[in-house]
Design goal:
single chain, 144 residues, mainly beta, 4-stranded antiparallel sheet, 1 helix, globular
Length: 144
């Protein structure tokens, strides 16, 4: 299957299969037109569809932590939802809405085994206990 590079999100989730092999890497992304979870072969660029996610994933960031794939779908102020996604069949294992919805969240990533969100510096004005650019995201949808 050939998918236009513009059809996949810029932010992908990387998962190294073997530390000694530079070619053994799986990259997960979303094919936005059909909301499909896809893998990208980093050696030859081949895109393979895993499965449909079953929800509108037009603004989702992915990251992989401790062998689990997470996606944060950001539709502020309407909704912000954290998903754990099955990498075999694309199904949602769990989901939680961020409550309250946080303004200016821009990205999902991780540091070590901890999910983190990046947000616009103005967010510090709403929550002074946070740094100006990053917050820890708990699996219950709270940010600290």
């Amino acid at each position: 299957m050939r998918v236009s590079p513009c059809a996949c999100l810029v932010v992908c989730a990387f998962f190294g299969i073997g530390a000694a092999s530079a070619t053994a890497t799986i990259v997960y992304s979303i094919e936005k037109q059909n909301d499909d979870l896809v893998t990208i072969n980093t050696e030859n660029g081949q895109v393979s569809v895993v499965a449909s996610l079953g929800f509108n994933a037009d603004n989702i960031d992915l990251t992989r932590v401790n062998g689990k794939l997470y996606g944060l779908d950001i539709h502020y102020p309407v909704s912000q939802t954290l998903y754990e996604i099955n990498t075999t069949n694309g199904s949602v294992i769990s989901s939680v809405s961020l409550n309250p919805a946080y303004p200016d969240i821009e990205a999902l990533s991780h540091v070590g085994g901890q999910l983190v969100v990046g947000y616009h510096a103005t967010f510090a004005a709403y929550s002074p206990h946070l740094t100006a650019s990053i917050g820890d995201l708990a699996l219950d949808g709270t940010i600290s």
